[in-house]
Protein: Phosphoribosyltransferase
Organism: Candidatus Heimdallarchaeum endolithica
Amino acid sequence: MQYEIVSWDEAYNMCYYLFEKLINANEFPDIIVGIARGGWIPARLLSDFYGNKFTANIKIEFYRDTSQVRENPIITQELTAEVKNKKILIVDDVADSGKSLQAAIEHIKTKGPKSIKTATLHYKKHSIVVPDFYINLTDKWIVYPWEYGEFIAFQYKELRKKHTVLEIKKQLKDIGIPPHLVESYFEKVLTNN
């Protein structure tokens, strides 16, 4: 599997480029809805760029970990705002299968919004939902900076069966996880479990 490790600076810039695309398309949402957990940070940044404090979230659980996927996503927290007759922008980090976006769209449609648009940082061609706005098309597994710890934990769990801790650390560093975070994770988290 190929990975794309996104840094904080890259993620921030991608969010700004996404904002520019939205503005250029004359998209001014009344409420920005972040899909928890991956969409929270991009939604918050878009809110900042727009100067729009009207944000909401919906929590959809789809992945059990970075590789195990449920058949269908589960809404574990319904939409946290009144959206009737409002222009809604749903934000997630990536449209991978598209099922989380689809679940969010269907749920929000039942609340009577004026319109719904979707935006992501990455889009994969096999997604059942093509976001209205996205920055990069990819087929790689994306690792965002807000999920480095989760990714390290999963890789350790999967690789420890056949690899030493030193080998796992090297693999994580080689794919682009910041070395100081790898070392810190193994030093502080794994030694306390």
In short: The domain at 3-143 is CATH 3.40.50.2020 (Rossmann fold). The chain has two domains: 3-143, 146-192. Helices lie at 8-24, 40-50, 99-109, 148-159, 165-175, 179-189. The longest strand covers residues 55-63.
